[in-house]
Amino acid sequence: MLRAGALLALGGAAAPLTGCGLLDRDDDPNPGPDPLTPLLDEALRLAAGHRDAAVAHPALAGLLTPIAEAHHAHAAELARLVGVPLPSGSAPATPAAPGDPAAARAALRAGERAGREAATRACAAAPAERAALLASIVAARATHVEALK
Amino acid sequence: MSTPTPSGPAGALAAALTAEYAAIWAYGPIGVRLTGAARTAAREAEAAHRRRRDDLVVRLSAGGGSVPPDRAGYTLPFPVTDRASALRLAVEVEERTAAFWRAAVPATTGADRDRALAVLVEYALRATRWRRTAGITPLTVPFPGRPA
């Protein structure tokens, strides 16, 4: 008796799933945001943060400019994978760079560390065709932390 | 070292093993041209590559796959005659070896992928530290491990 009831309940629950949910998914015009979109936004923010700090601290420009360019190159690759054009024109707003060079470096380091963790999570979850690029982005952000020491 | 040509997890790890053999070999001529802290760092780097080699031999053997053999010698990309060329080669060894671990990332999943990524990061960081020791700028490359 109990078993029959459980089977009936299962059948009842399964019918609507096969009826529309599963089959209709292929036709869904809005599959949701690409999981790499937050990483793309973050790469643009990191690039802008380094560029702004290089302007505020010209003595650090030699160190920060190549890092800003690396983040921009990451953003370009991520945009290609996501299938969106790389936003041109105004850079994302970033908090003003600290006036003290050591504090500016520390703030950039913190951003790189958070970025490394986000990229690590994305790499672990990514399909094979995206994993190698994400791995290089993780490694690049780790080396940025080292270079900013 | 050749370019990475992995097929599946075992192929990627076997390719990485050949890179580790070459890296260990290269740190021989690197170490003799260095002194002080740089020589210590070279010894530590060589030890890290030896540990990685040993770990790979164990993993590949346990998986029943073929374990590629070491070679008697390797051709250096340029002559190592002084401290500057030794440090340049150290950077190159780390970058080239990193490329094999980067190639292992998409070939693996789960804990194996985590491990391959950790090795890529470790070698990229060591390349950056060698650049700092050598006075090479910039200290970083945009895509560590990506074939040029």
Concise synopsis of the structure shown:
The complex is a heterodimer of chains A (about 150) and B (about 150). Chain A is an all-alpha fold and about 150 residues long.
How would you describe this structure to a colleague?
The complex is a heterodimer of chains A (149) and B (148). By secondary structure, chain A is mainly α. Chain A has helices at residues 2-24, 37-56, 61-82, 101-125, 128-147. In chain A, helix 2 runs antiparallel to helix 3 and helix 3 packs antiparallel against helix 5 (128-147). Chain B is an all-alpha fold. Chain B has one domain (8-134): Ferritin (Up-down Bundle), CATH 1.20.1260.10. Chain B is 69% helix and 0% strand. In chain B, helix 1 (8-32) runs antiparallel to helix 3. Chain B is globular. Chain B starts with 7 loop residues before the first helix and ends in a 14-residue tail after the last helix. The relative contact order of chain B is 0.18.
